[in-house]
Specification:
The protein is built from 5 helices and 5 strands. By secondary structure, it is of the alpha/beta class. Helix 4 crosses helix 5. The protein is globular, with a radius of gyration of 15 Å.
Length: about 170
């Protein structure tokens, strides 16, 4: 199973691609899609959509896992993140790939055992779970890898539940 994990944002969209290989998780790729602040919003979203589409076409993931919106104090920022999420979901939908959403707390709990884990703790656990020689950087890429791990680890249970309900 291959999972494309996404940490959405307009300025920085993190991505991480994880495969389940013989019972262990392996990182295939990870990075950040960056768009300049002064650029037109439509152009920025087009860039994100195109790059996510390329990642899907190159790696052929079985699923796309995306982090849910975190509504902090800045509603404008939340709307922009929602738009970035939308173009990611569109790219997956155009290729008939299922998307799953996880809250930041679900991702942290799946990777670290606590929904209140700090960012550096998530990075260290992602490094350990994927047997990486270095901490995954930048933060957005590490978060995207964590989202992919969250989905990949829950996939066998979801598949069993789907079979049982069918």
């Amino acid at each position: 199973m291959i999972v494309l994990g996404i940490d959405p944002g307009v300025a920085n969209t993190g991505y991480g691609i994880v495969a389940h290989d013989r019972g262990r998780l392996v990182a295939l790729d990870g990075g950040v899609i960056e768009t300049p602040a002064g650029q037109d919003q439509g152009v920025r979203l087009t860039t994100i959509h195109a790059r996510v589409g390329e990642l899907i076409d190159d790696y052929k993931p079985d699923a796309v896992a995306i982090e849910d919106l975190y509504f902090g104090a800045n509603a404008r920022s939340a709307f922009a993140v929602g738009q970035a999420r939308g173009v990611v979901i569109l790219a997956a939908g155009q290729r008939s790939i299922r998307c799953a959403s996880y809250t930041p707390q679900q991702v942290k709990a799946a990777v670290c055992g606590s929904g209140k884990a700090a960012k550096d703790q998530v990075q260290r656990m992602v490094q350990s779970l994927l047997s990486l020689t270095e901490l995954p950087k930048p933060d957005h890429a590490a978060d995207a890898l964590a989202v992919a791990i969250c989905h990949a680890n829950g996939a066998p249970l979801r598949a069993a539940l789907d079979r049982a309900s069918a």
